[in-house]
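Q: Structure for this?
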Amino acid sequence: MKKFLFSGLSLLLSLSHIVHAGDIASDVRAGQNSVDENGGFFELGASAGYYSNPRILSSDDYDDGFVAGLIMSGDYRYNGFFIEADHNTSDGLNLGYTLANIDNWTIDLLAGSVIGKVDTEFTDEFEKKEFPTDEEKLEYLDERDTLFAGAGIRLTGYFNNFVMQYRLVTDIYESNGVVSTIRFGRNWQYRNWNYHGIFSLEYTSEKTNNYWYGISQDEAVLQYTPYEAKDSFNVSAEVGVSYPINENWVYRSFARYKWLDSTISNSPLIDDDYEFVVINSITYVF
Amino acid sequence: MKRKLTIQTKLLLTVMLYFLTSSVFAASDRSLLKIKPQKCIALHQGQTCYQTLSIEALVPSNEEYCIFQNNQEISCWHARQHQFEFEFEATQSQMFELRHKVSGQTLAESKVTVAWVYKSKRKSASGWRLF
């Protein structure tokens, strides 16, 4: 059951990982609060674009180049509780509760801000092996868990077409550290085209970076020597546009560039000091 | 046989002539206001919606007629037919009316609906909440 749940979750999150952005991205596209009225929406669609992945992994899934996929996303609120699965988010799937709306500010409690993937069966099998071969180690480095289930707080300020968001979460899946971000977004409307820009500064703790980018003695193979990461600050910038084709269909496009801290880019698992993605999508809104 | 065909032909011609003259008469007597498209789509409820409208008016005389958008005059002319493009900008649906300039009589009307994909996300009352 656990595997089934995680498999479903992993599909959703792997999609959102490719097309990721921030929940601030949803708000900044709207140019307004994503607050409190009960209800929501669900979207189905398709996306295509280019993804430059800094990870050096043997799996074809991670190669640089053309990416395409199906989109399932949505947003629902009820009496302060919310679930956000925006396909343009950096923060993955968010479950939480809105604690307060004070003037232009909203304070959210995040019970689960989930990103990454997990395959417990695969991990358990690897960990049972006393002397894994290099081939098995390589496969493990490709497929090992990246799930980060953050719980914490989110503070969002809305000022006309500007949105500011601070987020602090700690991993509750396997205590893999802390991630904190501050983001600034701005929306412009030209005719029925909605343009947006987001600037983001992200802090990732040493423990989290080692979970994602470190290599332990047990995992090391010839080409992937042991590596211990430190904490990091990553900067990213995003520009995008949304256009209503009709009452149900929406076209979106965005490009995001993320500068990676040297403690990440120095990892043997990483071959670039940046991550870049540009995605075009069309979704049907229910 | 020949005589019968002639009567049929005459009857057919009479009927055709009747419909032809009546339709010409109706068109000359009727006022028309055609707007395309009749819907403007914005991404979010409350946003200003933009749409280039093609507006065509047909009136019964060469007197002065005007088109109003929610009681604001947007175009006047002296001719039986008037066609123009109009840059529509509104946050809500708008009523367009064809009126006689002097009498103010409304001869025809047409509505342009403003629709959106995502409904507005209203903020709840300010303050702390606990369930």
